[in-house]
Amino acid sequence: MKRYNPAEIEPKWQQTWASTSAYEAIDFSDRPKFVLLTEFPYPSGAGLHIGHAREYTLGDIIARYKRAQGYNVLYPMGFDAFGLPTENFAIKHKIAPQVATEQNIANFLQQFRELGCSFDWSRSFSTTDPEYYKWTQWLFLQFFRAGLAYQDEVAINWCPRCKTGLANEEVVSGQHERCGCAVEKKLLKQWMLRITDYADRLIEGLQTVDYPSRIADQQINWIGKKTGINITYQVSNSQQPAAITVFTTRPDTNFGATFVVLAPEHPLVTELLAGKIKLQSGEIPVEAIKAYVEAAASKTDLERQEEGRQKTGVFTGLKVKNELNGAELPVWISDFVLVGFGTGALVGVPGHDQRDFQFAEAFDLPVIRVVVGKDGDETPITQPQQVQEESGVMVNSGFLDGLGVHAATEKIMDYLEEQGWGERVTNYRLRDWIFSRQHYWGEPIPVIHCPECGTVPVPEADLPVELPVVESYEPTDDGKSPLSQIADWVNVKCPVCGGAAQRETDTMPNWAGSSWYYLRYFDAHNDQAFAERKKLDYWSQSSNAGAVDLYLGGMEHTTLHLLYSRFWHQFFYDQGLVPTPEPYAVRRGQGIILASDGRKMSKSLGNVINPSEVIQSGYGADALRVAIAFIAPFDQTTPWSPEGVAGTYRFLNRIWVLAQEFLAAPDSKLAAENPARTRLIHQTIKKVTADLEALQFNTAVASLMECVNGLYKLGVDRAALETLAQLLAPFAPHLAAELWLQLGHSDLLEEAGWPVYQEKYLAADEVTIVVQVAGKVRARLTVPTEKASDEAYLSSIAQSDEKVKTFLGSTPVKKVIVVPKKLVNLVV
Ligand code: ANZ
Ligand code: ZN
Asked: How far apart are alpha carbons 313 and 269 in whole angstroms?
């Protein structure tokens, strides 16, 4: 008998698939379209890792399943190749990033092929192809023309190691998310994209698409929309008139305000330090304020806001008047107040805000209760546990007393506005997107600076602005891109007036190319437009707002790539460039595969699993694919198990052996007609289909395993083996194709369709057994037909039936009479 040898089968089928167009999507086909996107990889020197393999294998399973069902499946793949790792590699090894990228892509292609992925390679591209980034640049110019791309001198996040500016989204816990280096602030002229114009749309759009709630919540929190009111307090003890405006979401608690706090960077603090404001009596402690402000400047926002941290601060000597109750509130400076949020000043209500309570405790400021919560506690607040932050009823609050907090909030906002003391506002945490990078390996920003005409877009006919060949890719310390050193590239004629002008030398962030890549797959080779409208229309037809039917990807980058690309798409929609308001109809995230020891896989720990090594060790791609599908529910983070592949290899080998035995003797008694086998096959079709619809890959594999176990007991015939091959095909496409061939088919398995179960075969054959106690019918039991003649079984289930037990009580059973398929009589 021929042995199951994936090393022989798999390359052969990969060759066949590469030479047919079986996996190419067809523009304008009558069949229903299905656009399945998996995040395209960054082609690093390390090659595909097992995390990639999980994403692309699961995607491939769906692609093959949908194709079998008759969908016109677009399952594309490309490369997101601009960015720092390649640039750093290029610097270190003195090799052009273009060349390094080409080599890495060739390696990735080989690995994709080895995995048996059914991508439509005819639509592939790299974001670094000038034919592609021409359109990234063109799309940037649409933002520019619409006023959504602008330049501004801002204090940006600066990574001193990578020597580049960063977007807020790229700073995690005060560190550059890529290199872990502590981020500094640096004042630089930057290109910005006005994502804040889309803050509301980015929140509302989430209602029209299907994302995991965790991802939607993260985006909503990141945008951080807060509705509240700005209240202005007059300073009551200064020689010069002065006022402080605070932002609060809880004006209902304002009768409980006992102090006001300014951020150290607040403009009033600068005025105090400059001596512009004097007290009516006494002195402002300028030296102490100065020392405090300097100390705060060296801390990150995260350090400043750390929960439970001992609050620090300094009193200014100023007081403001709360018009509501005439209270005098001392004005403090503290670094837990951030300059970038609200007005950079807050009103402290220590009875109902934990941070304010900590501040009041630290400086012995009064605490007033104005809300009684569910616990009914009305006593003075002296403990942090008593701080009632959420719901409750107002007390000690004048005309608000007795109202719930929400009604009180509305009422006092109306009142403050009527009196002219406050103004309702909405604040966002989201900031505009810092879009320039001071690096070589990115898309040049396609504008020209002319001393006469200002900032002028590069004319469309001159796109792409190609990256020039340079000697050195090293970034500089002065915050200028290496492109600035190539005089004959920088110096150009102004496209408007023809005078001497200079190119912009900053490049785009690596998030630019991935913000619209899915659209390019719809029309990958168009050199007249980023994509033809007719093709965009065809591929975007959707049951909801999104163009891509299913987008599988990682759990990270939910506030980076996933938010950025939604912003780009919404803008394109407004410009009439795309037919749908959202890019992705459904988003699902696969979990991470950890090392076997439960730690994150990393080069430095030496615990990285390379899918190619697993394949080449003899298990083959199919066993790896099935192991990946089987390892855990697909959205769960899970450790890699080396035994897993050994197990799935044995499983595939059992299928192989079963098929070979049948093929050696197709007319043996094994192959006889068998209703139990038919039922098993139809049950398996039903289960695997439902599981694939729900992305429950692991339970689908489990039912295939059960099915194979059943077939070993029940025997196989040709029909059973054919259906098994069809069901197996998405998971183990090489083995399935080989069995299909061995079963005598000359056409590709791809064309055989997806099996459909028939209800009539599903019903389990069952028999009703009557149970008598002392000759009287006391119960009826349903048992499977194959058990209906098993006397020991029938006797035991009859005596353990609850109803029967109550009739028996403590009376012992003397004898059991069994009539197979009919009756059990308990003689007492
Ligand atoms: C008074 C108040 C009373 C507040 C109360 C809260 C509870 P959240 O809490 O996330 O919804 N705030 C305002 N500006 C700030 C700044 N620049 N830095 C730090 N905190 C600031 O955000 C809104 C609340 O954050 C505001 O409402 C304010 O404290 C504080 F029982 O005002 B609140
Ligand atoms: Zn000009």
From this structure: 13
* Residues contacting ligand 1 via CB (< 6 Å): 226, 247-250, 253, 263, 337-338, 341-342, 344, 346-347, 349, 352-353
Identify the sign of the CA torsion 94, 95, 101, 107: negative
Q: What are phi and psi of 467, to 5 degrees?
A: -65, 125
Given phi > 0 = left and psi -120 to 50 = alpha, else beta, which region is 361?
alpha
Are the C-beta atoms of 304 and 217 separated by less than 8 Å?
Answer: no
pLDDT tier for residue 671 given thresholds of 50, 70 and 90: low
Q: What is the DSSP code string of 16-43? A: HHHHS-TT---TT-SSPEEEEEEPPPP-
Amino acid at 493: K
Rounded Cα gap, residues 703 and 723, in angstroms: 14
Number of C-beta neighbours around residue 580 at 10 A: 23
Among protein residues, the one with the nearest Cα to ligand 1's atom 33 is 248
Predicted structure pTM score: 0.84
Strand boundaries in 339-428, DSSP class E: 345-348, 371-372, 393-394, 422-427
Give the C-alpha separation, 14 to 733, whole Å.
10
At 793, list the tokens: 């079984």
Distance 498 CA to ligand 2 centre (A): 6
β-bridge pairing 593-594 and 638-639? parallel
CB atoms inside a 10 Å sphere around CB 551: 25
- pLDDT (tens digit per residue) in 49-70: 999 999 999 999 999 999 999 9
Alpha-carbon distance of 511 to 524, in angstroms, equals: 19
**Nearest ligand, CA 447:** 2
Quick one: which ligand is closest to 370's CA? 1
* Residue 144: closest CA among 432, 512, 445, 449: 445
Asked if residue 553 lies in contact with residue 38, where contact means CB atoms within 8 angstroms, the answer is: yes
Q: 630 CA to middle of ligand 1, Å? A: 47
Which residues lie below 8 Å from residue 84, measured CB to CB, with a gap of 6+?
Answer: 162, 164, 178, 179, 439, 441, 510
The pLDDT tens digits of the residues spanning 343-377 come to 999 999 999 999 999 999 999 999 999 999 989 99
Whole-number Å distance, alpha carbon 529 to ligand 2 midpoint, is 27
Ligand with an atom nearest the CA of residue 391? 1
| Exposed/middle/buried for residue 91 (C-beta within 10 Å: 0-12, 13-18, 19+) | middle
Say how far apart CA 643 and CA 636 lie, in whole Å: 19
Distance 191 CA to ligand 2 centre (A): 20
Ligand nearest to the CA of 249: 1
Of 222, 245, 236, 230, nearest to 277 (Cα)?
236
| Residue among 220, 232, 247 whose CB has most ligand 1 atoms within 8 A, to mutate | 247
Query: Best of 249, 304, 389, 431 to mutate for ligand 1, by most ligand atoms within 8 A of CB?
Result: 249
Query: 232, 346, 367, 368: which to mutate for ligand 1, most atoms within 8 A of CB?
Result: 346
Q: Which residues of 56-80 are buried (b: 16+ CB within 10 A; e: fewer)?
A: bbbbbbbbbbbbbbebbbbbbbbbb
Q: If you take atom 19 of ligand 1, which residue's CA is the nearest one?
A: 337
> Whose CA is closest to atom 22 on ligand 1?
249
Q: How far is the CA of 249 from the centre of ligand 1 (A)?
A: 6
CA of 494 to the centre of ligand 2 (A): 5
Is 670's pLDDT higher than 70? no
Measured in angstroms, how far is the CA atom of residue 235 from the centroid of ligand 1? 20
Distance between Cα 444 and ligand 2 center (Å): 19
Residue whose C-alpha is closest to residue 139's, from 436, 443, 432, 430: 443
Question: What's the whole-number mean pLDDT along residues 114-122?
Answer: 96
